[in-house]
Every structure is written in C-alpha cells, then in structure tokens.
Amino acid sequence: KKIKEMVECSNHARDIGVVSDDRQIRHYAGALGAKKVLVEDFLRMINSSPTEQTQTFKLDQRQADQINRELAEIWLNK
Question: CA 8, 12, 32, 20 torsion: positive or negative?
Fold first, then answer.
C-alpha cells in the first residue's frame, strides 16, 4: 500500500522507479507512468559493470542524496 501511495502522490511519477515482484504493484505503478522492474532484474543491473547498466535507474549523486532524504522522512517520520 505504501508504494502505491508514494507513486500516486508524486507530482513526477515518471521519475520514480519501482522494484517489486508483485505484479499488481508493478502494473499500478506503470499505469501512473513510473518505471517498473522485477527484483531479479534490478539486482542483475546493479551488480553489473557500469558500462552494462541501463539508463533506467542511473542517478547522479544529487538525485541519490535527495531520494535518501525523502525515504528517511517517509519511513523514519523525520
């Protein structure tokens, strides 16, 4: 439910990547424009060399820091 809410409440769903094996969550996220990927595919991607990685979840340091701050606020109620 939390994942669906996060994608639904976002003003930039196309900038969100949802990693899940749950077909319903992936379908819902995709319908809202978010990128979606299976856990196995995501793990394969992050464990590959940088030249093998796709652009799907490629982030610069600023974007990664922003995501970490937002997740801390959501999950840790900061």
Answer: negative
The model's pTM: 0.57
For residue 62, give both structure tokens.
Answer: 């600023």
Residue 40: φ, ψ to 5°: -60, -45
- Is the Cβ–Cβ distance between 35 and 56 less than 8 Å? yes
Query: SS3 of 76, please?
Result: helix
**Residue type present at position 25:** I
> Tell me: the pLDDT tens digits for 26-55?
999 999 999 999 998 888 887 776 655 555
Q: Please spell the DSSP secondary structure of 7-74, one letter per residue.
A: HHH-S-GGG-EEE-S-HHHHHHHHHTT-EEE-HHHHHHHHTS-TTT--STT---HHHHHHHHHHHHHH
Tokens of 72: 């801390």
